[in-house]
Amino acid sequence: MAVFGVALLSWLAWTLLRFKSRAVAKTPKHHENGAGNAGVHGTAAAVVPGYGERIFHYLWALAAFIGLITYFTMASDLGNTPIRQYLHHGSNPLQTRQVFYVRYIYWALAWPLIITANLLLAGVSWATIFFAIALQEIWVVSWLCGALVATSYKWGYFAFGIFAYLVLAYVMMVWGVQHAKRIRTNKDYTLLAGTLVLLWIAFPIAWGLSEGANRLSITGEMIFYGILDLIAVPVRRFHPGLFHFTQEGRVTGINHVDSFASGNHQGGVVQGGV
């Protein structure tokens, strides 16, 4: 398990040291150069924000750091509690299973940061971002309740979580893509958000085999979840020259740069949007 913590720490250090965001010059010449350099590739953390803000650095770095603390805790055999299981497999005389509640704390803290980073790229309203985060928290808390329940009622909580996930997936892949098209970030947003939503499909499988049906061993559970958690804090490649971050906290595409430079700081806010 320590390998996952080391990997997360390495990613965090690499992100902070390699991709230091540079302040965007407020001149038309700079914006022309930005458009000309649109083919230069970077990572999600390498978006060049206006006025030196490092929003994507902050979000992904915090998510990685929370993951490091979480996996250090689990590697130390802490942050868990034994729960009796109504489905018994193997020769466990106590008929219990270690449930690592600290993992759910990690999801509740880190996933909102990842969701926020993705939806900022789409240019949706803050209300939509808060709604998406609320759905994600319902999903995680429902599964935590299910993991701590010793009877078959756990599957009811599992179903509640699945419903919240499906609505969240709709928000990200339908509302998010619609807004991203308006600020010309749809290709990169679809890649990032689509990968994340598809990855999340594997989490119900992991939960069902471990905390749900009690089929996976604790070691198998750690490996399964560990791989998924590593991929969920992604390093994805897109065009940093296309995006600028305004003081209002919006990501803007190239077609919005001129209005931003002239003092109209509306950024990626879409009037009348979701």
Automatic annotation (TrEMBL):
It is a multi-pass membrane protein. The chain crosses the membrane at residues 55-74, 104-135, 155-177, 189-210. It comes from the Eukaryota. Pfam families: Bac_rhodopsin. Gene3D superfamilies: Rhodopsin 7-helix transmembrane proteins (1.20.1070.10). InterPro entries: Arc/bac/fun_rhodopsins, Yro2-like_7TM. It is found in: Membrane. Keywords: Membrane, Transmembrane, Transmembrane helix. Belongs to the archaeal/bacterial/fungal opsin family. This is Family A G protein-coupled receptor-like protein. It comes from Glarea lozoyensis (strain ATCC 74030 / MF5533).
